[in-house]
Every structure is written in structure tokens, then in C-alpha cells.
Amino acid sequence: MSYSTAVRDIWRHRDLEGARSDFAPLVHYATLAASSHNTQPWIFELGTREIKVRPDFARRCQEVDPDDHHLFVSLGCAVENLAQAARAAGLQAHAHYDSRTESIRVDLERVSAAASDLFLAIPERRCTRARFAKQGLTPGQWVELERVARGFGVDIHVLTARQEIERIVEFVAAGNEAQFSSTPWAREMRHWLRFNDRDALRTGDGLYGRLFGIPSIPAWLGRAMMPVVATAERQNQRDAEQIRSSAGIIVFSSAREGRSFQVEVGRCYERFALRATSLGLSTAFINQPVEVPLLRKKFAAEMGLGSRRPDLVVRIGYGPAVAHSLRRPLDDVIARGAEEMRWKRSA
Ligand SMILES: Cc1cc2nc3c(=O)[nH]c(=O)nc-3n(C[C@H](O)[C@H](O)[C@H](O)COP(=O)(O)O)c2cc1C
Fold first, then answer.
1. Protein residue closest via CA to atom 22 of ligand 1
2. Is the pTM of this model over 0.90?
């Protein structure tokens, strides 16, 4: 199968006819959510009236995400897509983080079906790591975006002034310097990079090199060349251009540390990205300032966040249509009830 055939098969709407009793189509939409390094760190346990979204710790990224913050934000992204798809199928989702099982329980209550604009945008959303057209958003667009991006304990700061954006350029550069100088961080990055179509198709996950401006090359060559060609200096230049081309930067922050807040941040981000998509806008993460612990503290102070945690940094604007990344098959992420879980564990 070619990369473009796989994309067409993955990034499409599915029939929700029987989805009130067989939840698999809902999981399809959940898997189209953003996830850190495209690790897709989720397992969906299907019950009769609920779905449990569990972390797959085998997919954690120790170096870029030592406290599993991004992992739980990613689960939140998936839960939001799940909730939007459930409503389109005639199910109202009620999600609660359960600290005992470290999972999110999504109870599904029967209601009338309603497909929101956010739901319709799910197969269109993607991260656009490219230059945007230097064009501002209208006040109406900002209102629409801000309305969906806040949640319980989750707030956003919107930066549009040139001086503020220059400060973001500096923070991202400082993050790149710290990350590129770490050998374990670079090793982890190489592990999740997919250097050509075959490499990406083999795993259905990871960071598709073409989306980062890396030409299609054999994986062994890519891994060998990375330490030489991927430098903080090059990355800084690329990031600075892309950040300066953006209409604005959005900083998501949460009231406190904790898994339930991280899940909520993910839900807020995903709604924000879907709304942006439905408005014809593009988004991309520039999370370096919140990924390096010391820098995160400075960044929180710079943003005047007090004790709040800065969770995500995202840029927005009018971008080109870029390729989608891949997803793993549903069978790899669905566990059908406790029986199967037991069977899988003993296999
Ligand atoms: C919590 C979180 C953190 C992320 N951080 C970054 C980042 O710093 N830089 C980046 O380019 N993409 C980042 N991403 C985007 C993922 O790499 C992206 O969602 C994944 O590759 C799948 O691609 P898609 O969103 O286009 O489907 C992040 C995503 C999440 C959910």
C-alpha cells in the first residue's frame, strides 16, 4: 500500500450507524487526535455503556516527557475526539479521570444525534509545521477560538504583538539548545522519526520526516546523519521563520499539576485545533519552552502565570495543506472488555 492510499483510508469519516452499540467507529475518531511524537499512547477498553481510555506506558517518551505530562495531554486529545464523535452518533460523553486506574472513564448516555462543526473537522485536522501567510485573524475568529479553548482549570494567553512573538522565538531557541545538546533526547527523537514512506507504513506511528523538511532516505542513513545535520542552529532558524510568520501564539496553562488537568488541557487543545481547522486555519506546536523544566519555570514567570503550569505553546495562522501522518490499526488499540485484557496479559 502506498503512503497516500494509507492516508486516504485513515483520514476519513466512518459510518456511525451502529456506533451506539459497537463503539469501534468512535475509537477510529479518537485515534485521529494529536499525540506527542505521534506515539498514540492509548488503549481503548470497550464496555457496554462506557469506554475506558488507558495510557500505554510502553509508548512513553522518557526524555522529552519525563513526567508523562504530554502522554496524558495526548489522552485528553483522544477523549475530546471521542466525545465529539459520540455526540454525532447519538451519545453524550461524560468523562472522568480515575486516579486509581490512571485512566479516563467515558460514560456514554443515549441522546439525539448532532454532528458539530468540530466533529466534521476531525479528518481534516493536522499539525502544519510550515511557514504561515503573514495574515492576522479577525476579532470574530479569535472569539470563536477562545470560546472552545478554555476548560475546567485551563486558561489560555493569546500573544499577537511582535515583541511578544520575538520573546517566544527566544524561548524556543533556548529550548532547542537544551534539547539538541542532550544525547538521550536526540536518541529518542531518532527512534520516533520515520525517514521514508516504508518506514512510516511499517509502524503506523511516529514523526513522518517529510513533515519536518527531511527528504526521503533509507532509515539507516537518516539515523546516521541526524547527529551531523540536525543541529540547534538549523532548527532555530527554521523555528524563528515559522513563528514570525504566525498570526498569533497561544499558551495553554492549567491551575495545578495533576493528571485530570493534563487530560483537560488535551481536550481544550483538541477543540481549539478542530475549531481552527473548521475556520480554514492551521496550527502547530512549539512546545520547547514547556518541555525543559528550568526553562518552563522562566517561561511561567515571563507569562505572569504565578503558580499555574504552562502546558502547551501553539502557533496559528493561514498555512499550506501539508500531508497527514499515519495511525495504527484499530485492532492494535482496542481491548474489548476485561476478558480480552486477561487473555492479552497471559498471552
Ligand atoms: C502533548 C503534545 C505535545 C506535542 N508537542 C509537539 C512539539 O513540540 N512540536 C511539534 O512539532 N509537534 C508536537 N506535537 C504534535 C504531534 O507530533 C502530532 O500530533 C503527531 O505527530 C500526529 O500528527 P497530527 O497531529 O498531524 O495528526 C505534540 C502533540 C501533543 C498532543
1. 38
2. yes
Q: Is the CB of 78 under 6 A from ligand 1?
A: no
- For the domain spanning 3-163+244-346, the CATH number is 3.40.109.10
- Cα distance between residue 186 and residue 64, in whole Å: 9
Extents of the domains making up the chain = 3-163+244-346
Closest residue (by CA) to atom 3 of ligand 1? 36
Residue nearest to atom 10 of ligand 1 (CA): 285
Cβ-contact 253, 303 below 8 angstroms: yes
pLDDT one-digit tens code per residue, 102-134: 999 999 999 999 999 999 999 999 999 999 998
Encode pLDDT of 4-57 as tens digits.
999 999 999 999 999 999 999 999 999 999 999 999 999 999 999 999 999 999
| Bridge-based pairing state of the strands 334-335 and 42-46 | parallel
Sign, CA torsion 112/331/277/308: positive
Q: CA quadruple 46, 52, 58, 61: dihedral positive or negative?
A: positive
CA of 83 to the centre of ligand 1 (A): 20
Ligand 1 in reach of 77 Cβ (< 6 A): yes
